[in-house]
Amino acid sequence: MTTGELGKGAKVFAMGTPGFLEQVAGAGFELLPDDRWEEAAGVLISGHPRFDYNELKAASMAGRAGAFMVTIGRDPTMPMPDGLWPGTGSIVAAVEIASGREVVVAGKPERPIFDLAVKRLGLPPGSRIAMIGDRLDTDVGGAQAVGLEGILVAGNNTHAPGTRVTPNHEIRSLRDLID
Questions:
Q1: Sequence-separated (6 or more) residues with CB below 8 Å from residue 149
Q2: Distance (Å, rounded) from C-alpha 164 to C-alpha 179?
Q3: Three-state secondary structure call for residue 93
Q4: CB 3.0–4.6 Å: which of 68, 84, 107, 112 could bond 42 by disulfide?
């Protein structure tokens, strides 16, 4: 199955926050409950704090049955006030192991999401554009891989193990952009 087969009206099993699910429905997809996984043409994965075994079961079974599987990203963690919480990548890893299939990344750090953002800005060719983020690997590294500058907001999650990414600029908070 290809992404082209997941057009408007396609039946999908999606997991994520209520806001993510609203966006999926708003894009014209039919959302399936976990007990109807066998009807899914696609599985859409986003991290959320109520991820459970029934979602893992439905996603992995739909994937093994041939559903196209896609995620917004593979961030293993996300910074929260009390420390690093499991990110979308943690859920994706569970689905991949359970299904025996690889999930396609539609978000950072893959090129299409950056190309879409640049196009939406509508700036003339050669404009100086930067990505601002809190992760070296997906935010700064993804931006740099497509020729954009990467600005790192220092904080809880600035050092991704094993990354060799160096930000073009580093700030303490978004307020530093105004100052």
A1: 128, 129, 130, 131, 143, 168, 169
A2: 29
A3: helix
A4: 68
Q: Which two tokens stand for residue 87?
A: 């990110």
Distances in Å between the alpha carbon of 107 and those of 11, 115, 138, 144, 163?
Answer: 21, 11, 9, 15, 19
pLDDT value of residue 135: 87
pLDDT (mean) for 47-61: 97
Asked whether the beta carbons of 92 and 67 are under 8 A apart, the reply is no
Residue 31, Cα to own-chain centre: how many angstroms? 19
Each residue's pLDDT tens digit, 15-46 = 999 999 999 999 999 999 999 999 999 999 99
- Give strand pairing partners of 84: 79
Q: Is 74 left (phi over 0), alpha (psi -120 to 50) or beta?
A: alpha
DSSP 22-80: HHHHHTTPEEPPGGGGGG-SEEEE---TT--HHHHHHHHHHHHTT-EEEES---SEEEE
Joined together, the tokens standing for residue 164 give 């060799």
Q: ω before 33 within 30° of 0 (cis)?
A: no
Asked if residues 179 and 161 have their Cβ atoms less than 8 Å apart, the reply is no
Q: Give the distance, in angstroms, between the CA of residue 174 and the centroid of all CA atoms in the same chain.
A: 22
Report the candidate in 143, 73, 62, 59 with the shortest Cα–Cα distance to residue 104.
73
Q: pTM for the full model?
A: 0.81
